[in-house]
DNA sequence: ACCTGAACACCGTTCAAGT
DNA sequence: ACCTGAACACCGTTCAAGT
């Protein structure tokens, strides 16, 4: 009988900030962040929307928790090991996390917040770069570049682009017009459409690590 | 008398898709995209919100127009000239456009749309890379990497990050805690805070162009 | 043809009231 | 201490009505 299941979810464990954020992550993973609302989130927890405010400051607080949830899921680098290997593994792990939770990049844009997990993460990356011999300035350069590369690919992957003309024709007309006016786009569009972001990302990551290594010499 | 000015803006030029998008760009530049609403946008044009729907499909259509507005403002590369110089100039121009309109990255994430200006832009970049000797596959790699680098830096610049602990202490306690638990972050935070994204971006851009050049050999 | 007011279905958030 | 219903000030969008 459905009443029992309902009561079970309602009385099982008490509401908690962590439970709310876990539910928000799960909701965003399956439905997208843009459709996450306090009311719907409350519903998945068997609770009214206003109850959430007893454990969470507001919606932005939930966003901050979701961002930190993702950072907490990335395995940290080990400052003792070979830095090129550690940084490469870290980049790939970060990309994996952004692939698993594609909404992370937009949330980071919405709120440039740093929770405990993000701070621990950043601290370990700096430690790894420092112990590899990078000065503070160069470590900062390297971090900025690695972060941009990772965010950039995650960004492009998340915004699965479609070619849209703003004039309203049917699809065939559109493609013909595009092929006439923009021959290079028409020829390379298939490559863009079926892009393997993981391998593309690794390709660029190696170039960057190589560039940083020569800077270190 | 204010009525005259009011009537002037109301009767001067008729409403147009372009006028609406120009107003939306101006509004987002000064107030931020997140606070752009149909009602407020109508108000700046001296018109009710519902009138906009006579010239624009919906709010997403306005977003698409804003994205294309930014792409139209970027000077195109010249396929005949030296590709390294052209690509470098293009990257800097793109970064300038994203700096002038910081909301572009979030809109691109929201809607991966390609209007006419974006298509023309992309086509010229591919033409430049092809005439430099890159194969279609390598041109695609290069484009992906350059776009990621540019978006990544624009992204980081737009999400001016602040260090926020989710526990609620006063600022001094926060900084002390951070200095204890995350010494590397505490030491490098000033560098992150006063980061010159333009020069950082150029630094990484040269590394990438260098890497692409050796790939071309 | 273009603009409008009222209405609909949603938001985040507050607050007094319930247990 | 935690949850709730009603309310407030906003959204995007539709539609019948005005000119």
Description:
Two copies of one chain form a homodimer. The first copy, chain A, has 217 residues and is an all-alpha fold. Chain A contains eleven helices and two strands; from the N terminus they run H-H-H-H-H-H-E-H-H-E-H-H-H. Chain A has helices spanning 2-11, 17-31, 38-44, 59-72, 83-100, 104-110, 116-131, 136-158, 171-181, 183-193, 197-216; strands at 113-114, 162-163. Chain A is flat, with a radius of gyration of 22 Å. The first copy, chain A, starts with a helix and ends with a helix. The interface between A and B is large, with 70 and 69 residues. Strand 1 of chain A pairs parallel with strand 2 of chain B, so a sheet runs across the interface. The structure holds a DNA duplex (19 and 19 nucleotides).
Fraction of residues in helix of chain A: over 70%
pLDDT averaged residue by residue of chain A: 87
> What is the distance, rounded to the nearest whole angstrom, between the alpha carbons of the first and last residues of chain A?
70 Å
Low-confidence stretches of chain A: 1-11, 162-171
- State the major sheet of chain A: none
Tally the beta strands of chain A: 2
List the helices and strands and how they pair.
Two copies of one chain form a homodimer.
Chain A: H1 2-11, H2 17-31, H3 38-44, H4 59-72, H5 83-100, H6 104-110, E1 113-114, H7 116-131, H8 136-158, E2 162-163, H9 171-181, H10 183-193, H11 197-216
Helix pairs in contact in A: 2-4, 4-7, 5-8, 5-11, 7-8, 8-11, 9-10
The structure holds a DNA duplex (19 and 19 nucleotides).
């Amino acid at each position: 009988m459905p009443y029992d299941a309902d009561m079970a979810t309602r009385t099982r464990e008490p509401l908690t900030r962590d439970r709310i954020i876990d539910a928000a992550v799960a909701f965003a993973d399956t439905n997208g962040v843009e459709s996450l609302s306090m009311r719907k989130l409350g519903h998945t927890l068997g609770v009214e929307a206003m109850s959430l405010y007893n454990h969470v400051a507001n919606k932005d607080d939930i966003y901050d928790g979701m961002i930190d949830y993702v950072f907490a899921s990335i395995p940290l680098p080990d400052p003792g090991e070979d830095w090129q290997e550690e940084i490469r593994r870290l980049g790939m792990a970060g990309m994996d996390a952004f692939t698993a939770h594609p909404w992370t990049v937009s949330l980071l844009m919405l709120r440039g917040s740093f929770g405990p997990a993000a701070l621990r993460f950043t601290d370990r990356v700096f430690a790894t770069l420092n112990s590899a011999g990078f000065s503070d300035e160069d470590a900062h350069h390297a971090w900025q570049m690695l972060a941009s590369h990772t965010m950039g690919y995650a960004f492009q992957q998340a915004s699965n682009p479609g070619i849209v003309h703003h004039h309203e024709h049917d699809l065939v007309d559109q493609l013909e017009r595009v092929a006439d006016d923009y021959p290079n786009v028409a020829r390379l569009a298939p490559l863009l459409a079926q892009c393997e972001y993981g391998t593309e990302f690794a390709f660029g990551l190696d170039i960057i690590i190589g560039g940083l290594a020569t800077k270190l010499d």
